[in-house]
C-alpha cells in the first residue's frame, strides 16, 4: 500500500505524461455552463451570483429559497440562449422537451430536488469540429459528437466551516440557469480536450450567452476517463483547464499502472467517481453507492414546445462563429497571425474586460478596409493590426478606459486616417504613439464631458507641431548626434557599438535623438548619422 | 418487512398478485369547479366540503375482498426466503395495500391525454415561435415584489432559526457535495 501511495506521488509531480500506443485513452466531457440571462431560470430574481458575493442571499426570491407554496415559472430567455447554443453546436432541437425533478438531499438544494431535463432534453446529436491549424491538435481534423444539451437550475453555494462543524449557505446562485452539455467519449488525447474546452468557451462568449469562465465557476467540467475500454472513471472538482489536463494525465497513468500489474479486473471493473485535489485523484463513490435520483416529470412546469420557425430565425440571427472569423482573419487581405486573430475573434476571459469582441472586430475590419482603400499601393497590411491590437488595446488597458468610450471619438474612419498619416510619413511612429496616448489620456480625464465627434488627427498634428520634418539639415543633424554622443559620456558603450559587440546599443542613442527631436525626425535617419559619426562598418 | 415490500420481493410473486381479480370501480371524478372571483367566493368554497377523505380509504369490505389466500402468502414468503410466520398479519397488510391500489385504479382519468402533459398547469401548449418568445421576454420579465423577486426587498434569512452574516447555517455538515 505504501509503495502504491509513493508511486501515486511520483505521477502527481510529473509534468507531462506520454500516451502509450498499447494503452488507449478515451475521454468524454460533461460541461455545466451558467447562462448570463438577466433573471433566473424559474423566477425573475436577478441572475448575478458573482457581483453579490459579499451580499449572501441577496438575489433570492421565494421560489429560490423554496418557500412552501412558491411555484416555478420558466424564463424563456434561457430557451432563447439554449437554442442559440444548440444551433451553433449543430444539434437537433427537440420539438418537445420537458423538465424533470432529480431528487437528492443537500443543504444548498432547498427544494430537495434539482429541476433538470432527464427524460426529454432540449437538444441532441450535435458536434463540434477541431482542426490542427486553428486548435493545435495532432490530427488534421476531429469531429467531437455531442450527445445532448439539457437546461437545468444551479444549486446554491455551500461554504464549509469544518472547524465549526457547519456550512454556510448562500442561495444567490440557486436557480441560476445552466446548460449541461455531454459529449460522446471520443477524445483520445488531452490536447483534444484542451482544444475543445477553449473552443467551447469561445463559442459561448461569441454567442453572448455565458462568460464561460472556469475560474469563477460559470463553467464546470467533469471528465469521464477510461483506458483500453475498462470501466470509466468520472473526475469531478476540476477548477481550471490545467487541473482538467493534469487530472486526466494522472488518471491515465494510474490506469496504465493497474493494467500493467494485471489488476484491472479487480480495480477497473466498475465505474467510480473520483475527485481531484491538485496532486492526485481520490475515490468519492463507486457504483455500489451510486445515488437513485428518483427522476419524475415536474408537474408544475409545462412541456417546452419549440417551433421550427423559432429555430431557423435564431439560426439566421447568430453572428459569425469564431472559426469562420479566424479563417477570414488569417487569410487575404488581413493575413493576421493566429495569435492576433484570436485576440480579435474571441475573448480569453469573459469577465471584466474593457473591450468586447463584438465592438473590437468590426472596428478592426472597418479601419482596415478604409485604410486599404486610402493607402492604395502603399498599403502596409500589418499597420492596422499593430496599431489596433498592440498600441490601442495596450493604452486602453494601461488607462483602464472602456473601448466603448473610445470608439465614440475614435471612429474607424478617423483611425484609418491616422494610419494613412503614418504611411505618408506626415507623422513619425514615435510621435504617433505619443499623440495616441495623449488623446486617450485626455479622454480618460474628460469622462462624461466627451464630445461625440471624431478626432481630427491632421489638426492635432499641426496644433502640437508633430509633423515629421521632411527636409532635415544634415549639418544640424550631425551636430545634434555629436552632442548626444558627448552627453552620453560612456566610452565603453561607444566602443562596443563601434566594434559591433553591442549592436543593439545604437538604439539607445537613436532613442535620445528621438526624444530631443520630439519624434519629428525619422529614427532611420538618426541611426544612419550615428553610424557615420562613429565610423561603424557592420 | 411490510407486506408491500414482500409483494415486490420476487417477480414471480408479483405476477401472481397481478393475476388477482381487481374489482375496477370508478366511483370518483375530479372537477375543477367554478371560477372564484373574490374573497367571498374563496371563503364559500372552503366553507362546504366537496369531498370526504373516507372516499379514498378502502373499507373493511374492500380489504377483505383483496386479502390474498394463506397459500399465496406462504408461496411469497418461501420465494423471499423468509420464515413462515405471522401469516395473518401479512395477509391483512397486503389486503389493505391492494384495496388502496384498487381505489387509485378506480379514479376516473382522461385516457386520451398524453402522459407527458400530466401537469398541474397548462397542459397542451402550442409550439412557441420567435415572435411570441420575444414578446414573452418583453412582457413577462417584470419582477414581482410579492414573489420576493426584487433583490434585497426581503430578509431572506429572517425566519431561519440560525443565521450567520446573512448566510443560512447548516450544522454538522461534513459530507461535501459530490452530486
TrEMBL record, chain A:
<dbReference type="GO" id="GO:0030956">
    <property type="term" value="C:glutamyl-tRNA(Gln) amidotransferase complex"/>
</dbReference>
<dbReference type="Pfam" id="PF02637">
    <property type="entry name" value="GatB_Yqey"/>
</dbReference>
<dbReference type="Pfam" id="PF02934">
    <property type="entry name" value="GatB_N"/>
</dbReference>
<dbReference type="InterPro" id="IPR014746">
    <property type="entry name" value="Gln_synth/guanido_kin_cat_dom"/>
</dbReference>
<dbReference type="InterPro" id="IPR023168">
    <property type="entry name" value="GatB_Yqey_C_2"/>
</dbReference>
<dbReference type="InterPro" id="IPR004413">
    <property type="entry name" value="GatB"/>
</dbReference>
<dbReference type="InterPro" id="IPR017958">
    <property type="entry name" value="Gln-tRNA_amidoTrfase_suB_CS"/>
</dbReference>
<comment type="subunit">
    <text>Subunit of the heterotrimeric GatFAB amidotransferase (AdT) complex, composed of A, B and F subunits.</text>
</comment>
<dbReference type="GO" id="GO:0005524">
    <property type="term" value="F:ATP binding"/>
</dbReference>
<keyword id="KW-0547">Nucleotide-binding</keyword>
<dbReference type="GO" id="GO:0050567">
    <property type="term" value="F:glutaminyl-tRNA synthase (glutamine-hydrolyzing) activity"/>
</dbReference>
<dbReference type="InterPro" id="IPR017959">
    <property type="entry name" value="Asn/Gln-tRNA_amidoTrfase_suB/E"/>
</dbReference>
<comment type="similarity">
    <text>Belongs to the GatB/GatE family. GatB subfamily.</text>
</comment>
<keyword id="KW-0648">Protein biosynthesis</keyword>
<dbReference type="InterPro" id="IPR018027">
    <property type="entry name" value="Asn/Gln_amidotransferase"/>
</dbReference>
<dbReference type="InterPro" id="IPR006075">
    <property type="entry name" value="Asn/Gln-tRNA_Trfase_suB/E_cat"/>
</dbReference>
<dbReference type="GO" id="GO:0005739">
    <property type="term" value="C:mitochondrion"/>
</dbReference>
<keyword id="KW-0067">ATP-binding</keyword>
<dbReference type="GO" id="GO:0032543">
    <property type="term" value="P:mitochondrial translation"/>
</dbReference>
<feature type="domain" description="Asn/Gln amidotransferase">
    <location>
        <begin position="370"/>
        <end position="534"/>
    </location>
</feature>
<protein>
    <recommendedName>
        <fullName>Glutamyl-tRNA(Gln) amidotransferase subunit B, mitochondrial</fullName>
        <ecNumber>6.3.5.-</ecNumber>
    </recommendedName>
</protein>
<comment type="function">
    <text>Allows the formation of correctly charged Gln-tRNA(Gln) through the transamidation of misacylated Glu-tRNA(Gln) in the mitochondria. The reaction takes place in the presence of glutamine and ATP through an activated gamma-phospho-Glu-tRNA(Gln).</text>
</comment>
From TrEMBL, chain B:
<dbReference type="GO" id="GO:0030956">
    <property type="term" value="C:glutamyl-tRNA(Gln) amidotransferase complex"/>
</dbReference>
<dbReference type="GO" id="GO:0005524">
    <property type="term" value="F:ATP binding"/>
</dbReference>
<comment type="function">
    <text>Allows the formation of correctly charged Gln-tRNA(Gln) through the transamidation of misacylated Glu-tRNA(Gln) in the mitochondria. The reaction takes place in the presence of glutamine and ATP through an activated gamma-phospho-Glu-tRNA(Gln). Required for proper protein synthesis within the mitochondrion.</text>
</comment>
<dbReference type="GO" id="GO:0050567">
    <property type="term" value="F:glutaminyl-tRNA synthase (glutamine-hydrolyzing) activity"/>
</dbReference>
<dbReference type="Pfam" id="PF20977">
    <property type="entry name" value="GatF"/>
</dbReference>
<keyword id="KW-0999">Mitochondrion inner membrane</keyword>
<comment type="subunit">
    <text>Subunit of the heterotrimeric GatFAB amidotransferase (AdT) complex, composed of A, B and F subunits.</text>
</comment>
<dbReference type="GO" id="GO:0005743">
    <property type="term" value="C:mitochondrial inner membrane"/>
</dbReference>
<comment type="similarity">
    <text>Belongs to the GatF family.</text>
</comment>
<dbReference type="GO" id="GO:0032543">
    <property type="term" value="P:mitochondrial translation"/>
</dbReference>
<dbReference type="InterPro" id="IPR027499">
    <property type="entry name" value="GatF"/>
</dbReference>
<keyword id="KW-0547">Nucleotide-binding</keyword>
<protein>
    <recommendedName>
        <fullName>Glutamyl-tRNA(Gln) amidotransferase subunit F, mitochondrial</fullName>
        <ecNumber>6.3.5.-</ecNumber>
    </recommendedName>
</protein>
<keyword id="KW-0067">ATP-binding</keyword>
<keyword id="KW-0436">Ligase</keyword>
<keyword id="KW-0648">Protein biosynthesis</keyword>
<keyword id="KW-0496">Mitochondrion</keyword>
<keyword id="KW-0472">Membrane</keyword>
<dbReference type="GO" id="GO:0070681">
    <property type="term" value="P:glutaminyl-tRNAGln biosynthesis via transamidation"/>
</dbReference>
